[in-house]
C-alpha cells in the first residue's frame, strides 16, 4: 500500500466530511430518527453524549467535524498498520454505540 502525505489524507478526510455529515443528519431525522448512520459514522462523538446528559453538544459537533480529516491525516502516511489500528478503534466504538448505552438515540 503506498504511503501518502498527511496533507493528502487531510484533504481526503475534508472531502468525505460533508457527505458523512449529510448522511448522519438524514438518519437523525430532526431528532425523530434512529441515528443509525450517525452512530455508525461518528461513534465516538455520539458516545460523548453520555457525558452531556444524552445531548448532542458543541463538543460532539466539533469532534464530528474533525473526525474524518483527522483519520485521513493519521493513516495516510502510516501504511497498513495505521489503517488496521484505526479501523479496529472505529469498529470497537461502533460496537459500543450500538450496545444499548445510547438507548436515547434508538428508534
Count of runs of 4 or more consecutive helical residues: 5
Helix content: 55-70%
Order of helices and strands: HHHHH
Q: What percent of residues are in strands? A: under 5%
What are the main properties of this structure?
107 residues; 0% strand
Detailed description of the structure:
It is built from 5 helices and no strands. The chain is an all-alpha fold. It starts with 5 loop residues before the first helix and ends in a 10-residue tail after the last helix.
In short:
By secondary structure, the protein is mainly alpha-helical. The chain has helices at residues 6-28, 36-41, 43-47, 58-75, 80-97.
Give the topology, please.
Blueprint lengths: L5 H23 L7 H6 L1 H5 L10 H18 L4 H18 L10
